[in-house]
Amino acid sequence: MIRTWKVMRFCAQTSVRVPCYRQFGVVSCVQQKLASSLCAPRGTRVSEIVPEASSATPGDPAGKKQSAVPSEHTDDGWGAEDELLNNRKSIPNLKVSELLKDVPRSKLRPERKSADASREAAKPPAPPVHRKTAIEKDTLQILQHRYQDPNESEERYDKELKLRYTILQSNDARYRDLMMLIGSRKNRERERMLVLEGRRLIMDGYQAGLRLEAIVTSDVKLLAELTFRAKLKACPIFLVKRQTMMEWSSLTTSPGLIGIFGEPSNMSELVTRNATGSKRLPVTVVCDNIREPNNLGSIVRSCAAVSVREVILLKGCAHPWDLKCLRGGAGAHFRVPIYGPIEAYQLPEHVRAGSIFVVADNKKPTDERNGFRWKHYDRIDYGSADHVVLVIGGETYGVSDDIRSLIHQLTQNDGEQAPQDRKFVAHIPLANGVESLNTASALSVILYEMRRTLLQLEGTT
């Protein structure tokens, strides 16, 4: 305490001015005066006296700021930092990056990101790279092999079959034409071509009288199964790879044979010629909203087997010349007249006056909307009129109400017979909780009952 008091009295009596750095206590001032090099706070900067500061007036604040430190402090070590700072400001070409080369990167402070770096950081992260599996690689090879084949098409001759064929490559123009023809129905309609797949369907089309334009196969040995092999000499035969045949095929397992036929100019004449010798029943089948091509093909097949007069497709049905529909028909398309798809308002043009209408609909029991009489299919008098119009709808919605209303108008306009005796809803009784039958199955049941009744009335076995 005595020593501290003596120091304080010495400081009060002396005329030396002691600068204060951050700490304003008297003891701190004394300590900084006695040991300034040891007691100066870290990071303290002392401004050096600038020569121009001597010209400043006592009232000038700039002069006060620059003459605050005596010259004796510059002799110590802690004033050298300010000298380096001033030298750095006076050198315009100083490159900090050159000085930082030798500094370890872990000790550097993170620099401020530029605008481009921040923009890149704002982007969503790139998706992970998908590594293709073996199946994906094989599929990609199948899809791209047509663009990677540098070979040219080559003509070959088979001595056993005595046939000439062409090994078709993907860079051939005929390859592209065949692919577009087989894969697009619009191209087939524009070129008036029919595509039949499989040995049996090709033989049915040839026997029906269609003009054979080309044969596409994945194995020349499959041509031996065709019974008209001797007539293939005038027809171009193309051999393609198995992968190509799988791509062009509409089936899960390709049979390896595709026949391209020319569409006849008069299909009705072709059908009439094929139906020679079979008696046509006075029955017209109207299909309403049959969207499944396989079901429509089965319906056409049943109609050809019963030998109905014609099949009419309304708008909303599948196309009759679809590849799946042709396969479901098994050649029946060339043995029964098919019209449509047509609009509903065009239906009266294909209906004969005085016909009775039978709607095959099993949705609601005792359904007698629009004046229809509900009866079992085997209790309807199909011979009460000269012609029978059988209307069948899809499995989901059945016959639409618009068609029922149209039939109701047609029966009201013709007064030859009571309207209620010309409109029937055919009901097929089912057991074991089964709600409905397949469309083609239900049509077959009703058609064969019609055939039995009509032939009985004519006295024909």
Keywords:
single chain; about 450 residues; alpha/beta; 60s Ribosomal Protein L30, Chain: A; Alpha/beta knot; seven-stranded parallel sheet; six-stranded mixed sheet; 17 helices; 13 strands; flat
Explain what you see.
This is AGAP003655-PA. Keywords: Methyltransferase, Transferase. It comes from Anopheles gambiae (African malaria mosquito). InterPro entries: Alpha/beta_knot_MTases, MRM3-like_sub_bind, Ribosomal_eL30-like_sf, rRNA_Methyltransferase, SpoU_MeTrfase, tRNA_m1G_MTases_N. Belongs to the class IV-like SAM-binding methyltransferase superfamily. RNA methyltransferase TrmH family. This protein has 461 residues and is α/β, with parallel strands linked by helices. Among the domains are: 112 residues, 2-Layer Sandwich (60s Ribosomal Protein L30, Chain: A); 192 residues, Alpha/beta knot. 35% of the residues lie in helices and 15% in strands. The protein contains 17 helices and 13 strands. The chain has a seven-stranded parallel β-sheet, with helices on both faces. Strand 7, helix 14 and strand 8 form a beta-alpha-beta unit. Helix 9 packs across helix 10, helix 14 packs parallel to helix 15 and helix 14 packs parallel to helix 17. The longest helix has 19 residues. It starts with a helix and ends with a helix. About 7% of the residues have low confidence.
